[in-house]
Amino acid sequence: MNPKEAFQAFLYNSIPLIKKLGISIETLDKESVTTRLPAADFNKNHVNTVYAGIQFTMMEVTGGIIFASTFDINKYFMVILSMNIEYHKPAKGELICSCSFSEADRVALMAELDEQGKARTTLSMELKDKADITVASAQATYYISLRK
Length: 148
Prior knowledge:
alpha+beta; PaaI family thioesterase; Thiol Ester Dehydrase, Chain A; EC 3.1.2.-; 4 helices; six-stranded antiparallel beta sheet; globular; 6 strands
């Protein structure tokens, strides 16, 4: 099983809702991740666009994946503290979410974790439709700590 498949299996086992929604990992490396939400009737709201809560879920889990692919999840845990979302256009059909975390940011965060045992970091996510139009973007602040 390659790392992408392993994280997909971990994601589906640890957060069953992600499997139900059909969110899948499209690309994954140490500095970036993209996820995909398929078009589905159960993802729609009363005006036939993708429900805002599902867009939030997709962006939040994408940030979680970049963390899990960067840090030892047996040593550290991460939870979201806040997320500021801007909805730019109605989201319809299949969606793609991207998030990146640079090596320089990772090194700085690791130094803070080594020194204090905990840290906060902010990640940016972008949600696009199949036509590559940005439908939403977000800034999420996460808390990271050593497991006790």
